[in-house]
């Protein structure tokens, strides 16, 4: 296809997605799959409280189920891709505090207008002197056009939105550009078990349901390396079920999973060696235990041996101040035992994690980080 044809196809997909979320779906009951209602981790108390302080109209215009929230947010600058009516932005604006800032970008003008209506309301509710939230009407694969500068954000979040964009590499490239060194993309999305055939990729309902645009999960690792990110770190994963016989027939042997990954942009500091770490504790909402991803949980005061990639991330990101680091073999002050890393235990496959999770007993609690957190126009 010529560049013009490719652009035309992308524009058509954007229109279809806007129509699906603006006209076809009125409530979450209209969904044909559970891609948007999968369960993730329990919501910490401080996040539940932040959500309760968001204005009622903003919350009503939000049709998602989760909030993609990394840890250690105080004073951070955060960019929310696909911010919709602004619910997540207003919750996060409380968590970053008055010295932090949250920017939301969304392609649906009506949703951005709703979000902007309540800037002063939330500023006054939180007791801030000035608003620490900005909303932009624009496309997540065209952040430069929206005026977002190089290396201007500590964290970029996204809740099941990247799969709706035809050019994933362009989105990730833009995110890499706007992140500071040591910054992180923390995002929930839908992934496929294989390269999708054209019949799925061009199906309008499957696009709207977050399946038609799903990336083959191994391609995320390829794109991350190509762009310059550290290897993706898998956080949570849940299998997606299809509640429609016709869609099941089209999908065939392909399986889908909803997964949260974290991607770090680190400075070039040379090779980092495996080391011992001790979590100092104290991160808001994670004072005693930090579940960093599916492979590493750090308990306050306990020695954990980490691999080269994990050591590089912890030493060169906003988490550095929360850990003690020592070469392997050194004695570290610790109140707990030592967890020795075995590389064979590292899980990168979201389908394996989801299947393992399915075997464990479920608890009926509120959830965060579920994919998708859709922000549809009414």
Automatic annotation (TrEMBL):
Cellular-component GO terms for this entry: cytosol
Key words, A-Z: S-adenosyl-L-methionine, Transferase
Residue span, Methyltransferase domain: 75-219
Classification via InterPro entries: Arsenite_MeTrfase-like (IPR026669), Methyltranfer_dom (IPR025714), SAM-dependent_MTases_sf (IPR029063)
EC number of the protein: 2.1.1.137
Chemical reaction(s) catalysed: arsenic triglutathione + [thioredoxin]-dithiol + S-adenosyl-L-methionine + 2 H2O = methylarsonous acid + [thioredoxin]-disulfide + 3 glutathione + S-adenosyl-L-homocysteine + H(+); arsenic triglutathione + 3 [thioredoxin]-dithiol + 3 S-adenosyl-L-methionine = trimethylarsine + 3 [thioredoxin]-disulfide + 3 glutathione + 3 S-adenosyl-L-homocysteine + 3 H(+); arsenic triglutathione + 2 [thioredoxin]-dithiol + 2 S-adenosyl-L-methionine + H2O = dimethylarsinous acid + 2 [thioredoxin]-disulfide + 3 glutathione + 2 S-adenosyl-L-homocysteine + 2 H(+)
GO molecular function, one term: arsenite methyltransferase activity
GO BP annotation list: arsonoacetate metabolic process; toxin metabolic process
Family: Belongs to the methyltransferase superfamily. Arsenite methyltransferase family.
Protein name as it appears in the record: Arsenite methyltransferase
Organism: Spermophilus dauricus
